[in-house]
Amino acid sequence: MDLFEYQGKQYFQRFDIPTPNGAVADTVEEALAAAEQIGYPVVLKAQVKVGGRGKAGGVKVAANADEVRTHAGTILGLDIKGHIVRRLWVEEASSIAKEYYASFTLDRPNKTHLGMLSAQGGVEIEVVAEENPDAIAFISIDPVRGLDLETARRWVAEANLDEAAREQAAELLVKLYTCYVEGDCDLAEINPLILTPDNVVKALDAKVTLDENAAFRHPEWDEFRLTDTEDPREIMAREKGLNYIGLDGSVGIIANGAGLAMSTLDVVNQVGGSAANFLDIGGGANADVMAAALEVINADPKVKAIFVNIFGGITRVDEVAKGVLEALRRVTITSPIVLRLDGTNAVEGRAILAEHLNDKLITEPTMLDAARRAVSLANA
Ligand code: GDP
Ligand code: MN
Predict the structure, then answer these.
(1) Which letter, b or e, does each residue of 86-111 get, where b requires 16 or more Cβ atoms within 10 Å of its Cβ?
(2) What is the pLDDT at residue 229?
(3) Cα angle, residue 165 at apex, residues 160 and 168 outer, rounded to 5°
(4) pLDDT higher than 70, residue 27
(5) What is the DSSP letter of 81?
């Protein structure tokens, strides 16, 4: 889950990472009230989950109430790369002497954490990496050993941060690393990390991606979800513990195993259809899981046909068949269901369904046949 900048800054504050004071505002009046409270000048910042807001006109300094009115009015409703601005972050304006870049992310191939630090911040790090790769100091952090202050001090020196910034930056980086690890982030990025003319180092921007796999130990993340413009189908699926990703097509997909689910999307595409979702019910799925999966797909108004593609391994096809019948008892499934059932207990599974088959509950012998049938029903 990606956080808005203001949420990222609030998250940083829990780990004692210095950020400017600010407040959220959803209207011009709220922006004005916040600015009066904070004191001028303020910066008005578009809260959208996309970078490059500055260039797109989503970050403006306001020296007085009139400027707040003008800028807030312009930024609210602005379309930044397809994201409409509905919320502002009003922040005390900072004076900037230097802009740096700092981030931590996971280095999967090396099974370590990766820190990136540059004295050339404020611009996209991809651009720095392209034009001046030597300006980025990389650090590989063993997750067992972590990042200590000594190492952080060497790192800021290597990155050529200004003398005046080094000690504060080193301390901040250790805190950012703690935030990244204990806060279960996939990414914790500050761009720019600034040095002010009076030699204060702080995070002027915040880009935080939380690791959803760690959500179970962070009940406090729920507050972030409330503001998330998440796909309602995905919310429903998560509540039911399903591995679901919403797509735009008309064929609802249920498969067991991520690989088979992906292949199912491909086959549907190949025969001229488009998938409404990815849904992997996993190994060992029982009747309950199958019923939950059908309920989620049934709730999607774009779905015109449902393709259930099961190859029983650990998952037993008879359990899946029971799940389909259970779902049909629990909810009125609006779209026809095409099943391809193979593997462990397939014969028993098909027998369970045999007497229930009709024009809305159909079985096909192969994946390709089932895909063709589902797509023709969806396009009918
Ligand atoms: P982004 O464009 O989405 O990355 O948004 P940022 O929060 O990084 O802001 C973009 C740029 O606006 C920064 O690199 C700064 O140069 C400038 N900026 C943001 N806040 C302030 C501020 O408080 N004072 C000044 N002088 N400039 C700011
Ligand atoms: Mn930025």
Answers:
(1) ebbbbbebbeeebbbbbbbbbeeeee
(2) 61
(3) 120
(4) yes
(5) T
Mark residue 199 as left, alpha or beta (left: phi above 0; alpha: psi -120 to 50; beta: remaining).
left
Tokens of 94: 């900072």
**Which residue type is seen at 142?**
D
DSSP state of 135: G
Whether residues 218 and 300 share a domain: the answer is no
Distance of CA 286 from the midpoint of ligand 2 (Å): 46
CATH, residue 340 = 3.40.50.261
Ligand 2 center to 101 CA (angstroms)? 9
Domain boundaries, position 356:
232-379
Pocket test for ligand 1, best of 96, 195, 196, 208 (most atoms within 8 A of CB): 96
Q: What is the pLDDT of residues 273-305, one digit of tens each?
A: 999 999 999 877 778 888 899 999 999 999 999
> Bridge partners of 286?
none
The last residue of one of the domains, among 92, 113, 135, is 92
pLDDT in tens, 315-338: 889 998 998 998 889 888 899 999
Q: In sequence order, which residues have a C-beta less than 8 Å from that of residue 159 and are 6 or more positions away?
A: 100, 117, 118, 119, 136, 137
Q: Is the CB of 54 under 6 A from ligand 1?
A: yes
Read off φ and ψ for residue 351, nearest 5 degrees: -65, -40
Q: Is residue 58 part of a domain?
A: yes
Give the percent of the chain with pLDDT over 70: 99
Nearest CA to ligand 1 atom 15: 122
Q: State how far the Cα of 340 lies from the Cα of 371, in Å rounded to an integer.
A: 9
CA-closest candidate to residue 378, choices 241, 201, 250, 227: 250
94 lines ligand 1 (CB under 6 A): yes
Distance from C-alpha of 126 to C-alpha of 67, rounded to nearest angstrom: 33
What pTM does this model have? 0.72
* Count of C-beta atoms within a 10 Å radius of residue 138: 14
